Amino acid sequence: MTLTIALSKGRIFEETLPLLAAAGIEPAEAPESSRKLIIGTNRPDVQLVIVRASDVPTYVQYGAADLGIAGRDVLIEHGGAGLYQPLDLNIAKCKMMVAVENGFDYDAAVKHGARLKIATKYPQIAREHFAAKGVHVDIIKLYGSMELAPLVGLADAIVDLVSTGSTLKANNLQAVEHIIDISSRLVVNQAALKLKYDTIQPVLDAFAGAVSQ
Ligand code: ATP
Ligand code: MG
Question: Where is the ATP phosphoribosyltransferase catalytic domain positioned along the sequence (predicted)?
C-alpha cells in the first residue's frame, strides 16, 4: 500500500526535509526545480504530492493524501473536519497579528466602539478574535498583499502572519496585537491511520523523535 504525503513548496517543504529523513524518506526531486506535482522518494511505498499550503487539509480530509503538513493558520481556517492532528512539528513558526498603519490610533478606535474594517486572508481567525474582544468588524477577504489594504483605505487594520516584521516596516505598518502563535502540524486521515497503521505509525514515531523543541 502506497503512503501519500501532502506538502506545500517553500518553507514547509524545506523544514520538513529533516523530519522525512528521520523517517528514512528522501524525495527524488526538489519541487522548486521540478514541475512535477507527484514526487517519488527513495522508498517505493512513499510518494509526495505538492499542493497549495491552504489545500493540504482538503487532500488529507478526503483521503487523497494519508498525511500532510499544514500551518495552524490553515488548519483553523479549514476547520479540521476528518483530520487527526497528533503532532506539532514546531516548524514554519510565526505569529498571527493585527497590524495598522503608523499613526492610526488602534486603541482609541477599539475603545470608542467604532466599527473596524479588517482585511485578511484569515476570516475565521479574525472573526473569532474580534468577537472575543466584543469589537464589531467588517471582514474583507483578500488572497495576498494584505499590507496594502490600510495604505489605500480599503481597511483600518489587517490580520496577517508576521515573522520578522520587516514587511510591515517596509510598508509603514506596525503590529498592535498578537492573536496566536503559529507553527505547522502533522495531519493524518483518520481512516488511513487504521488501514495503513503499520506504515503510518513508524513515520509518526520518527517525526515525533525528530521534532526540535
Ligand atoms: P501562497 O504563498 O502560495 O499564497 P501561502 O502564503 O499560504 O501560499 P506560504 O507563504 O508558503 O504559503 O506559507 C505556508 C505556511 O507557512 C503558512 O500557512 C504559515 O503557517 C507559514 N508561514 C507563512 N508565512 C510565514 C513566515 N513569514 N514565517 C514563518 N512561517 C510562515
Ligand atoms: Mg505566502
Answer: 52-207
Domain enclosing residue 174, as ranges: 94-181
- Which three cell numbers, joined as nine digits, stand for 185? 502540524
Whether 46 and 151 share a structural domain: no
Give 121 Cα–ligand 1 centroid separation in angstroms: 11
Which residue lies with its CA nearest to atom 3 of ligand 1? 52
Atom 12 (ligand 1) nearest CA: 53
Question: Do residues 61 and 108 share a domain?
Answer: no
Coil vs helix vs strand at 198: helix
Residue 105 has pLDDT above 80, yes or no: yes
pTM of the model: 0.96
CATH code, domain with 60: 3.40.190.10
Ligand 2 center to 11 CA (angstroms): 9
pLDDT of residue 213: 77
Distance from C-alpha of 120 to C-alpha of 107, rounded to nearest angstrom: 19
Q: Are 32 and 62 part of one and the same domain?
A: yes
Nearest CA to ligand 1 atom 18: 71
